[in-house]
Design brief:
- The protein is α/β, with parallel strands linked by helices.
- Helices cover 39% and strands 18% of the residues.
- It has 15 helices and 18 strands.
- The protein has a seven-stranded mixed sheet, with helices on both faces. Strands 13, 14, 15, 17 and 18 form a five-stranded antiparallel sheet that branches.
- A hairpin with a 2-residue loop joins strand 3 and strand 4 (71-74).
- Helix 13 (361-382) runs parallel beside helix 15 (448-467) and helix 14 crosses helix 15.
- The N and C termini lie far apart (52 Å).
Amino acid sequence: MIIFLIHNLLSLLLWKGTYDDDDDDGKYVKEDKVALAKDDIYKLRKQHVSESCILFYDPNPLQIVRAQGTYMYDENGVEYLDCINNVCHVGHCHPDVVRAGQKQMAALNTNSRYLSELNALYAKELTDTFPEELDTVYFMNSGSEATDFAMELCRVWNDATDFIVVESGYHGHTRSATSVSNYKYSHPKGIGQPDFVQQMNLPDMYRGDHRDPETAGKKYGMQVHDLIKRVEGRGAKVAGFIAESMLSCGGQIILPKDYLRTVYKAVREAGGLCIADEVQVGFGRCGVGLWVFETQGVVPDIVTIGKPMGNGHPISAVVCKRAVADKYYNNRPEYFNTYGGNPVSMAIGLAVLDVIRRENLIAHAKQIGENFLEELKMAKNEFHCIGDVRGMGLFLGIEFVKDRETRVPDEKTAVTVKHKMYKNRVIVSTEGRHNNIIKIKPPMSFKQHDVDRFMKYFRAALQDVSRS
């Protein structure tokens, strides 16, 4: 207890975080100081936090004490370019979002059973961004919660149990979300594929069986018919199909044309509902519109959203068709979530939408993303360890291979490049079934000079690898 009190006192003395409400920029001003030495923080964490909660760059983890825009700063004030934070969507500590949260927190924060103007306004603002059929919203706090509730809506819809999922999909960490996340249940320490789950092959046009962009979507999608037969063969019914509208953990996979259209049609004919998971990829990241599923020419029955929704504040939602919500209302107890839809979350959510529109971030993502992709293609032409570059907007992937003809995955080079870039203060991460893909999904405020900085150190890393 004494150590705890001393720690808090030192934090108050050494961390001088202030906010000047008269400051037009609305920025925090902090000294890059912390109360405990980095080694002591690490020891405390190892002592009290489960080892299941991993750290980047462990055993020499990066300690971040503040951030702004596309940059993060460690305890020594060293600046890092953030190329992977798809949560701080409109930029770290965006002053308008910070101000909105602070102002509302100073006035009121309570549960959603009280009538709230902010709750009603945000519900309207949010649903207005979707196709008109998707007009009903439930608020919650995380993508995992959203997946869990979306699955329940499906099960209630036709009194069914079984789900169809996509290989390498990830939809959350709760038991129910893990059960439909191949990324989790196929792990050596995972629960294994449940009996009520059928799995589609990854619709990967680079590494998969179907590579023609004109026909691959339908060919991959047609597999759903066999899976529906399997479900029915075990005396069950299809409750729903769930997939990200762009596949993140699968390795930054852009779905081929007509894929969702083919799958959705079959699932609905079988009586199930279709869930579009936009938790990681939504809110304009694709550079075309707010929602990626629209690029596939479909309207889901249910959409799950989260992460970028609050720019780092925990907020998520399920948006669905009114008929789906009515079926739940008529067959289940009330939906209540203590923090879901609270006034502070609603104020922050409104501020994020406003920033996206006012700063024209969707068009910005398209332009910067196209420039970025062209730069990566030029690097691919120069360095043969790169097998593929792909993406849409500010959602990009770089796949490393040992040989372009055989396309054998090269995890070692991908990880080496990641660590070399870290040494040059550029943060990237690796992903995919073979951990051989560098993923890029930065804050939407990413600028051309950030692209230039990335490419400078990316090329330097590749040159080092080529010489070794």
